[in-house]
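User: Could you walk me through two proteins back to back? I'd like the raw sequence and the structure tokens for each, with a short line separating them so I can tell where one ends and the next begins.

Assistant: Of course. Protein one, sequence then structure:
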Amino acid sequence: MASGIKSLINSAKALYIGNSGSKAELPDLFPVVDKEIDGEDCDRDCSNCVVQYPKSFKIDETDALYGFVKGWSTHVLVATGKSDWVRDVADEKGSIMQAISHAKAPSNGRLMVSASNIPTPHRTTSYSEPTTVLVLPAFAVVENVTPATVPTLVSIINDSPTNTSPLEPISIPPSMTAHLPEPTPAMLKDITTRPSPHRALILLCSQKTRDARCGQSAPLLRKEFQRHLAPLGLYRDLDDERPGGVGIYFISHVGGHKYSANVMIYRRPDAFGLDEVELGKLTEEERQRVVPIKPQEGEDDLGAAQCIWLARVKPEDCEGIVKFTVLQGKVVKPLSQLRGGFDRGRGLMSW
């Protein structure tokens, strides 16, 4: 009886998100680790984690995860300098999130809006100052955004690639002037854009006002991800914009907090030059010499090729996620952790 009810619930979820039968099946969306290719230890949990979840940390371990994420076209991260917000971030008074909720929707599909802990330009959490917005999958940083210039931000989103766009060079104007009333100072009208320096992003839901588990898991996972990225020279803290690294940001509720921790990983195409490397076929000495390559100056900016959305992530998963998911675009535990995502290079998505 219980399994029958769960099947009906899953069918209702699929109907709600608009499954059309054309989505990629679970084994097809992202490569899955293989012991012959990736080594005998490719699916093992980290044995020396320095952090653990509290004993009271309990989540749903039985629901099917894959294919129940509602499709989205563009994802924006709004810099707020905070890691927690009111329950619905659109109710943050005077914020960019609120202004977006009241603005005309983008013409190129569903927009996902996340508040983030990205520092604001003025190092304040006040919404009275202009802030920065990161547009994905374009990997475009939009600066000097205010609630009044949100319509201009939306026009930038309309001209940016979406999750279903083919991988082609991105051409976003480096500056735009918002159409605001004449008394408005020129400095508040000018919006600038630039490519994000990062090769990959790890986004962690941290919103404890929606679920205490998100507030508990995010800082613990960040610490563990940092421990594995730092020796590779890839960890970037909130103020580090050296090119070629991995940014780790806290974001607001993305849904499915009962499957905490939710982790979204955006990757540029072959982000570190390791996607085709078969680690399991290398000797130990050869494996030690494998290092992520740095981006080449002047290379085309294509934005993110993939977003890999995982859930039920624990500290002991972080080593494998860094080694295989961040560095190579593979999934370690697809059946229990993969919620969905997209691969623009192959034109595949989970919805």
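----
Protein two, same layout:
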Amino acid sequence: SGDDFESSLLSFEKLDRASPDLWPEQLPGVAEFAASCKNPITNSPPKWMAELESEDIEMLKELGSLTIANLMEKVKGLQNLAYQLGLEESREMTRGKFLNILERPKK
């Protein structure tokens, strides 16, 4: 009776997965990415690597070799640097305001 129950649950309906209306792409670009992953052995590098210089590739390799802790430390360092640059920019903008170098010339 268990086999009868299982066979009663089987559906022989054919679903047309080619239809974009029935099976829309939920995340844009996923199908293109999946297609590019199916053929991993290609002579040309991916599109995003075309504009990278050798320095960029070396940095990617360096960052890829870091442990999670080291990578987090690197990210915190970048956040601190961005904060310091923001403070410096704020000081320079204030300085420019006081020196009236940011004023528009009067016509």
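The chain has a mean pLDDT of 80.

Let me know if you want the two compared in more detail.
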